[in-house]
Amino acid sequence: MKVLITGKLPAAAEERLRQSGYEIDRHDEDAPLTPEALRERAKDADGMITLLADKIDEALLEAAPRLKVVANYAVGYNNIDVKAATARGVTITNTPDVLTAATADLAAALALACARRVLEGDALMRAGKFTGWKPDMLLGAELEDKTVGVVGAGRIGSAFARRMAGFGMRVAYFNRSRNERLERELGAERLELAELMRRADLVSLHVPLSEETRGLVSAEMIAALKPTAIVVNTARGEVIDEKALIDALKNRRIFAAGFDVYENEPNLNPDLFELTNVVLLPHLGSATKETRDVMADLAARNVAAVLNGETPPTPVEE
Question: Which of 16, 128, 150, 314 supports an S-S bond with 173, CB 3.0-4.6 Å?
Fold first, then answer.
């Protein structure tokens, strides 16, 4: 049987599949496959390991009659029509849990970089403009005794909340259901989103992208933020009104924002490059060697399980 891998993965994951006797077809270019090329490569594939840039839709499924499993190399799967795949008997899997710590760490890093104007300081030093300590140079914001608002208190959001509580922050959260563990451990307070946006000094987004969460943080919500507020997004770009956020940053209606994801990724709104009160990262949430290795191994195990007629470790349920 043949497994199509649409990007470069850690070698151990591919070797696991080869040792299981599968033929490997790997896309080695940095640019993602076009939809047409993806359909062509998938037409005789029994399994696929896909990246977020790969759109697995009805057209792809129609072109791949042998396909039994698609293992998404990510925890999110908004690039996949799960309903259409399920209807065709194609199992979809993802990589939950294994990237929780890495993504929470990166969200905390963005929060700190925004609060203490780290990139502005770095740019000043590289430009040779540091002439000595000054009382009013690059004044930032302290986090202690402030409120962090966590939008989406699942695994990653909860891990982020624990990190920020370590900096002395009060924790508020918005979630569809109560997170009693977070309330018990950190004294976290569950709020409606509008109230959280009004009260939080730091807002961090940790919801998956769905029809329910698309545009969740609207222009109206952004307008409710304090002028000293910081916004961090390591979820998906489409969960926030990016244009409204950029407008608030331009006009200094909020203090700063940290981006790891973007509405039209990998294309960025050019206005972002003109702003000094932003930190821009290229979707690095899970980018540690340890995490990416485990993600790849899990994706390979998911593919092998399905092709062997077994239940995969982390199936996505429609």
Answer: 150
